[in-house]
């Protein structure tokens, strides 16, 4: 029998196993990929420590500023952004109203609610320039929607109409009640106004079957 250069003698009943050979560049790519994972994990841990994350708080997204470096971070509980200085500002999702992207200025505009008098809840506006839009607006919309329970119009004694919006704080489920005047501002004294709104919010919570925890806050009652 004549054997060709491409054939090998084989004993009946035996199998020939081919050993794959990976190119060296694939090995280098895998090593670089693993080093990238380790590096990203290290940066994420450093950022979490810098922001003072709470226990089990999850980092969802990080955005860079125009010159590089972290300018904004979103977690499952709050939105963090750099202020005018080098420090970070934190706003819980239960206080964030809107997060909008302005493509012309390549910046993110964050509007959040803060306590004020019943002449109107104060809206705080922060502008954060970013290198790129990313998915932050979509993440913010999901997190904001998750905290909203609803808004209702209630009438105080004397016929003064108020809008009450309920927001739930992530993880703790603490309720925050934001109060807005509907129409003309109520002409009530501070103490009387506070008592009437507190009673109205308590009645609304009872009607909705929502517990009015002692720690629950009515935002908009600060004098």
What does this structure look like?
Residues 1-5 and 33-40 have low confidence and may be disordered. 26% of the residues lie in helices and 32% in strands. It has helices at residues 24-51, 136-147, 190-208; strands at 59-64, 70-75, 78-82, 88-92, 96-102, 107-114, 122-129, 148-155, 161-168, 175-181, 217-219. The chain folds into 2 domains: 47-146, PH-domain like; 147-219, no CATH class. The strands form 3 sheets. It has a 4-stranded antiparallel beta sheet with strand order 1-2-3-4, sandwiched between helices. The protein is an alpha+beta fold and 223 residues long.
List keywords for this structure.
single chain; 223 residues; alpha+beta; PH-domain like; four-stranded mixed β-sheet; disordered N terminus
What is the level-2 CATH architecture name of the largest domain?
Roll
> Class by helix and strand content?
alpha+beta
Q: Which strand order does the major sheet show?
A: 1-2-3-4
Which residues form runs of ≥5 with pLDDT under 50?
1-5, 33-40
* DSSP strand tally: 11
Please write the string of helix (H) and strand (E) elements: HEEEEEEEHEEEHE
CA radius of gyration: 29 Å
Strand content: 25-35%
Q: What is the number of independent domains?
A: 2
On the 0-100 scale, what is the average pLDDT?
76
Query: Describe the biggest sheet?
Result: 4 strands, antiparallel
| Percent helix range | 25-40%
What is the CATH topology of the largest domain? PH-domain like
What is the first-to-last residue Cα distance? 106 Å
Note the total helix count. 3
**What does the overall shape look like?**
elongated
**What is the C-level CATH assignment of the largest domain?**
Mainly Beta
